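**Entry details**
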Amino acid sequence: MRHAPVAVAVLAAVAVGVGIALRERGPVPPALQSGTALPEPRAIADFALVDGNGQPFTREDLRGEWTLLFTGFTNCPDICPLTVAMMAELRRRLARDDLRFLFVSVDPERDTPEVVRRYLAHFDPALVGATGPRPALEAFTSGLGLAQVVNPDAGGEYTVDHSTALVLIDPEARLAGYFQAPHQPEALAADLAGLPRR
């Protein structure tokens, strides 16, 4: 029995040491079954876009909530509407007030803020939209590891080849992970439901 206080002191010291080690190691990345979490979240550079209401949309607007981001364009015939519809369904199903669903148009020549807002309202008015001048968009998407290429056709029209990945951004406005297509809604819902709450 005389050794009990020593054992308690040793256990307390070990617990403190583990706590310090975990704090120095930083936050544990989210456990994603259908995506890939970065071992350490990566800071997102400052950017200046415009939201669907014509208001500035910057890195500060990404703080405070988890964000699931998808880039596309409103004239996209297939991938974009299917993915945005899935995002709308996930938002309704999960009903988390700390999870934002963000669509960023990479076709600023046709997708004005108003066009983006009306497009998203078709699926769910609570989805957040943004766009901006092409140089700003390309700098922003490049920083996330995403790409897009404008492809003109013979008739003078054009389409935009773009990344189909969903990007996970943490509440500190840092790049936290990716979900690559094809997206599995059930697995994605489970991953998003398991994100640490604020």
In short: DSSP finds five helices and ten strands in the chain.
